[in-house]
């Protein structure tokens, strides 16, 4: 049976019992705990809306069945309440009966401290942190491909490093298509784009006019800024590396933004509030007639500004930010079998030029960030089960 990852499964057994439960103010239910925690208050409307019974919630697909429009005042008022040490039983005025377990109620306490702990455990136990090191070895963690796929602890380490640092290197990957397989195995899923539905290839083609497939230098950038929601997780698998050049340059946009905010707050305010549009302009055929738009493949940046002085100020601010990005960049040269994983929405990447007569080939794939977070949560659950079963 597949592991179900919900808010409940991310918490351990609290070992608490219900000391008492009662209706207060005709609109709330109060629960007193055996561990001395503050008495918890729950709105009746919330309890009725979140009733976990099978008439209100489908446990097979984890989907609510109750319609909010049916929650009338009479259906959200308590007729009778009783409790045991492990549950609260409520009969509502419309006759519906609900049972709330101790664990269910304790995990949904509404005191500020409990909410903060819950949010930290479910969403923000690991937060993005600006780079503090100055060399690749100080910033980038790594692990072997097979280790990550076979050990949930390694999956936790990989995903937490991605969340915290935005970059990770996976070593000793197979010399074949493996990125989609890797994501699937850890519980994530790749996302197709206009570059392809699966892995896409970047290889040196001396006659190519497409910059990625040339040997020319690429400056710091993120991929697909023209999309409404650019794919945040990117994996680059090195299959063939050039002998000379071809290093990847990486820079932490988060760190650079914080430096900019401290040194030039006006520049920071300008860059963080002025909207910039990016467009992907591609040659395409229309209605299969052979006629086409004649604009070449390019990226176009359009500032939504109508003031000459404003445009000048924006570019001055951007140039200052760019210098911060460049001065804090690090260089790494992937070797065959290395997978460079990074947060495309945070870690700007570039490539140094290399000998056009030398072979160089990478495969890449994108995935939504939510899948990385899902993989992290599932690995945490698997790890906690191993610990509970004495396997760790």
TrEMBL record:
The entry's keywords: Carnitine biosynthesis, Dioxygenase, Iron, Metal-binding, Oxidoreductase
Organism of this sequence: Bugula neritina (Brown bryozoan)
Listed Gene3D superfamilies: 3.30.2020.30, Clavaminate synthase-like
Family annotation (InterPro entries): AlphaKG_dependent_hydroxylases (IPR050411), GBBH-like_N (IPR010376), GBBH-like_N_sf (IPR038492), TauD-like_sf (IPR042098), TauD/TfdA-like (IPR003819)
One cellular-component annotation, GO: mitochondrion
Pathway the protein acts in: Amine and polyamine biosynthesis; carnitine biosynthesis
Superkingdom: Eukaryota
Protein name per the record: BBOX1
Domain Gamma-butyrobetaine hydroxylase-like N-terminal: 25-106
Cofactor(s) essential for the protein: Fe(2+)
GO biological process, alphabetically ordered: carnitine biosynthetic process
Stored SUPFAM superfamilies: Clavaminate synthase-like
């Amino acid at each position: 049976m597949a592991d179900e990852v919900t808010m409940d499964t991310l918490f351990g057994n609290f070992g608490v019992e219900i000391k008492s439960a009662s209706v207060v103010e005709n609109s709330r239910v109060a629960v007193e705990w055996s561990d001395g925690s503050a008495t918890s208050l729950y709105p009746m409307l919330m309890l009725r809306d979140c009733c976990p019974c099978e008439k209100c919630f489908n446990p097979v697909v984890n989907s609510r069945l109750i319609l909010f429009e049916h929650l009338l005042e009479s259906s959200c008022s308590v007729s009778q309440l009783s409790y045991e040490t492990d549950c609260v039983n409520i009969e509502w005025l419309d006759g519906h009966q609900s049972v709330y377990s101790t664990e269910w109620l304790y995990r949904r306490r509404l005191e500020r401290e409990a909410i903060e702990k819950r949010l930290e455990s479910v969403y923000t136990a690991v937060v993005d942190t600006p780079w503090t090191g100055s060399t690749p070895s100080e910033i980038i963690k790594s692990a072997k491909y097979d280790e990550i796929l076979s050990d949930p602890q390694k999956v936790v380490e990989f995903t937490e490093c991605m969340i915290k640092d935005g970059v990770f290197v996976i070593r000793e990957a197979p010399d074949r298509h493996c990125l989609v397989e890797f994501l699937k195995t850890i519980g994530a899923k790749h996302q197709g784009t206009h570059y392809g539905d699966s892995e896409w290839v970047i290889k040196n083609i001396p006659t190519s006019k497409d910059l990625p497939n040339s040997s020319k230098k690429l400056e710091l950038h993120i991929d697909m800024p023209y999309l409404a929601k650019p794919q945040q997780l990117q994996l680059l698998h090195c299959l063939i590396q050039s002998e000379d050049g071809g290093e990847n340059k990486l820079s932490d946009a988060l760190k650079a933004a914080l430096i900019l905010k401290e040194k030039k707050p006006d520049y920071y305010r300008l860059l963080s509030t002025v909207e910039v549009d990016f467009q992907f302009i591609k040659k395409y055929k229309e209605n299969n007639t052979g006629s086409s738009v004649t604009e070449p493949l390019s990226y176009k940046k359009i500032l939504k500004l109508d003031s000459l002085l404003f445009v000048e100020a924006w570019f001055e601010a951007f140039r200052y930010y760019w210098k911060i990005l460049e001065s804090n960049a690090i260089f790494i040269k992937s070797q065959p079998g290395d997978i460079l994983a990074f947060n495309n929405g945070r870690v700007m990447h570039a490539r140094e030029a290399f000998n056009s007569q030398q072979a160089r080939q990478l495969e890449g794939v994108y995935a939504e960030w939510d899948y990385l977070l899902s993989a992290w949560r599932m690995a945490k659950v698997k790890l906690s089960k191993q610990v509970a079963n004495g396997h760790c």
